[in-house]
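About this split. The held-out portion is used to measure sequence recovery: a designer receives only the structure tokens and must propose an amino acid at every position. Recovery is the fraction of positions where the proposal matches the reference. Here is one held-out target exactly as it appears in the evaluation file.
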């Protein structure tokens, strides 16, 4: 039995589309993500805090603001070593240095801010990161 050329062409197009649709799934992950929650000293979520990460080697800077539930997310960050700064009105500025982010890693960095003058800065050292 002979297959009609149009049926053969239609079959080839369908096969090509199926194969082409799987290509994005095979794409490599080349970035990581830093997420977390900002709290006040009583453990309540702190909305409106400004979170900034800066790549220590390239000076790439990304900034976001914590949500009503205190959460934040900085996706699509290139792997590297980052410094994180958290600022909120009526609280001391917190600086977290040397946060290592790997390819494909979702790093959770929760912080608790202390009340204080805007000019005060609290530097955190020796942070041990955990994966989520």
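Reference sequence for scoring:
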């Amino acid at each position: 039995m002979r297959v009609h050329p149009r049926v053969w062409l239609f079959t080839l197009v369908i096969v090509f589309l199926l194969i082409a649709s799987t290509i994005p799934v095979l794409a490599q992950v080349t970035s990581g993500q830093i997420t977390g929650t900002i709290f006040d000293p009583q453990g309540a979520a702190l909305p409106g805090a400004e979170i900034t990460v800066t790549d220590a080697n390239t000076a790439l800077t990304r900034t976001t603001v914590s949500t009503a539930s205190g959460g934040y997310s900085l996706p699509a960050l290139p792997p590297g070593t980052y410094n994180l700064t958290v600022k909120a009105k009526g609280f001391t500025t917190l600086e977290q240095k040397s946060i290592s982010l790997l390819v494909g890693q979702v790093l959770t960095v929760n912080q608790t801010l202390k009340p204080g003058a805007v000019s005060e800065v609290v530097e955190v050292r020796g942070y041990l990161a955990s994966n989520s």
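Annotator remark: The domain at 29-126 is CATH 2.60.40.1120 (Immunoglobulin-like).
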